[in-house]
Amino acid sequence: MWPVLVPVLAVVVLAATWGRELGPVPVVLVAAVLASSVLAAVHHAEVVAHRVGEPFGSLVLAVAVTVIEVALIITLMISGGPETQTLARDTVFAAVMITTNGIVGLSLLVGARRYGITLFNAEGAGAALATIAALATLTLVLPNFTSALSGPEFSPAQLAFAAVASLSLYTMFVFTQTVRHRDFFLPVTTAATTREDAETHADPPTGRAAAQSLALLLVSLVAVVGLAKIETPAIEAAVNAVGLPLAFVGIVIALLVLLPETLAALRAARRDRIQISLNLAFGSAMASIGLTIPTIAVASIWLQGPLVLGLGSTQIVMLALTVVVGVLTVVPGRATRLQGGVHLVLLAAFLFWAIAP
């Protein structure tokens, strides 16, 4: 019963601690409940995925996490004042780097270590990476090169175009993934996957059980993001205490919010279903941009101060390197430990230069 009890407990803890200053012991307890909520979210996501099948299961988790991540960003920007004008950029970019390098790298490394070579659909992974590259460039790179406003900002008309373009690209990708070319995003059948299916096969859950898990998934994700917000003051205090840049707060938020997808991707990699891992990673990266930017564009109507979206020069280099390496990884349709290690080194480089810019 723990997957049912944990989301309820997390919501109770969230209600009891919301808006209050917490001491060291309550902060640790909230962190423990947060970790439990992540595990519950992964469990319910897998139940829903088993019911609806791939790639819908990955899409459900990616969209659910991103919608709540956007709500967290908006909440922090409204309550945080001028110092949060780069929070959306920092969190979205961190999400892109964590998913395309961290989740992808860990999944490839785990899969290749167990099965030797990991196989996936190059068509689906390549289409996803191309969409991510277009989204990231249109929304996070171009603000540095436009001349309507000084600084890394869009004018209102440019922001509106970027929002419409982002939503259009994301919608087209979802249609391609779930309707037109769904087979591009299904796991590649191997001897290992066939054996895993035979050993772990179970009848899909009933519609009622899947609906219950979907509701508990949403509750768990709300709890994860709400508890992450409660932990944010402690995170900011720790960041300031060790002298890290304020942008590192966005990275920590992205790490917390993406924990459910990371665990789900690793569990899929252990079953030699690397395509599901890539669906989760690339889908989350796309949703982070394709849903956040349109929402921020609407919210900017009442948000105070400028909205800084343009990346710094170091971040642009890291993004370009990630895209190039990602293309070389997905084009062959197979990968070894080396590719996983390369992506993890890129994630380590991103984290290092975020700490020591």
Automatic annotation (TrEMBL):
A Pfam short name: Na_Ca_ex
Protein location: Membrane
Every Sodium/calcium exchanger membrane region domain range: 28-178, 213-355
Domain of life: Bacteria
Membrane topology classification: Multi-pass membrane protein
Regions crossing the membrane: 25-44, 56-79, 91-112, 124-145, 157-175, 214-231, 237-259, 280-303, 309-331, 338-356
GO cellular component term, pick one: plasma membrane
GO MF assignments: potassium:proton antiporter activity; sodium:proton antiporter activity
Alphabetic keyword roster: Membrane, Transmembrane, Transmembrane helix
Identification of the protein by name: Ionic transporter y4hA
Lineage: Bacteria, Bacillati, Actinomycetota, Actinomycetes, Kineosporiales
